[in-house]
Amino acid sequence: MTSFLGHDKAQRIFRQSFDKGTLHHAWILAGPKGLGKAGFAKQAAQFLLDSHKGDIYPENGFNLDDMSQGAKLLAARSHPDFRLVQRGGKTDKEDKKAREEGIDSLEEHELKRNISIAQIRGLQPLFATQASISRYRVVVIDAIDDLERGGANALLKNLEEPPKDTVFLLVSHTPERLLPTIRSRCQILRFDPLNDDQMREALSTLAPKLEQTELNALIAAGEGAPGKSLQYIDAGLAELESLAHDIMRTGDKNNQIKSDLARKLSLKAATPRYQAFLSRAPSLMAQHIKTAATNSSFSGSGKAIDTWREASDLASMAIPKALDNQAVIFRLGSLMGSLAEPDRHA
C-alpha cells in the first residue's frame, strides 16, 4: 500500500505507542483538509486489524500487506471488526449507491449535511461482542467535524467508557471546534502540510501524466495538501491562473479577458473549472497584493485588502446562494483588474 509522504512523524508516533503497549483508545487526526488524514486512518486501521498475525513489522512503519485477509476485507468493505462512519447520501438511491460503490462515488451535493446520531448508535452491535478475526476493533469517523450535536454526545459515551480493544480514529479538519470533552479524551496526532518537493512527488505519483506547467499550478493551489490539488486536476488550472495574472497585471481595460473567461466558465460543462476558479481567485489576489506590497511605490494596500475581502466573500457565497456564474466571474475579474492600478501608476 502506498505510504503517505511527509507523514513519517505521525506513523512513528502511532507505531511507538503500539510497540510500547500504550496505544491510546482514541486519536484525533488533526490538520487541514486534503493532507491524507483519512488515508492514514485506513492504513493505521489495517495495521491494527492485521497485528494479531504476529508478523515482524519494520520499526516506525506500517509495512502493510495488500494481499492479507484484512486488506482484502477492508477493500471489500466487509471487515467484521472495522467500521467507517461518514455522511450518507441524501436520498435512498444515493445511500444505496454509497453502500455499493463507496461514499467517494457521491458528489458533495449528494451527501447529507451531517453524520447523524443514528449512525453513532449503529456502532453499538460492534461493541457488544468481541472482535471476530482481529485483536482490535477499529472505528474511523471521517470527519468528526460533521457530527451533529446528538451524535457527538453519543460518541462521547463510548470515549468515556471505551469498549475493550477498540481504537477510534477521528479525522478532524478543525479540531478546535470539537467539544472540549471529546478532545480531552483523545490523543491528538497533528498532520502538517507537505513541502513543495513532497507535493511534487505525491502528485507525480498520483497523476503521472500531468504537464509541468499544470503540475506547478497544482502544487501552488494545494498549499501543502495533495487532496486539495487533486480536486483541480481536470480544471485546466494553469490556464485559469495565467488568465487571472494577465488581468491583475494589465487591468484588462477593454474587459476582453474577463468577458471571455466569464462566458467560458458559465457553461454547464465548465462547472469543475468554475469551482476551481472560485477557490483559487482570492488566493491569487492575495499573492499579487503581497508581491506588490514589496514595491515601495505601492501605496494602495488598504484598498487592495478591501478588494480581496470583497472577492473572498463573493467566491464563498457564489455556490451556496446560486449566484449567476457569468456575473460572478465578471465581477471577480473586475476586482482583479483593479489591483493593476497601483502598478500602472508606479
Description:
- With 346 residues, this protein is of the alpha/beta class.
- It has 17 helices and 5 strands.
- The protein has helices spanning 8-19, 37-50, 69-75, 92-101, 117-121, 124-127, 149-160, 180-183, 196-206, 212-222, 226-230, 237-250, 256-265, 271-293, 301-318, 325-338, 341-344; strands at residues 26-30, 82-85, 137-142, 166-172, 187-190.
- The chain has a 5-stranded parallel beta sheet, covered by helices on one side.
- Helix 10 packs across helix 12 (237-250).
- It is elongated and about 70 Å long.
Instruction: Give the distance, in angstroms, between the N- and C-terminal Cα atoms.
Output: 54 Å
User: Fraction of residues in helices?
Assistant: 40-55%
Helix segment count? 17
The 3D shape can be described as: elongated
Tell me the structural class.
alpha/beta
The count of strands amounts to 5
As residue ranges, the low-confidence spans are: none
Global mean pLDDT: 86
As a whole number of angstroms, the C-alpha radius of gyration is: 23 Å
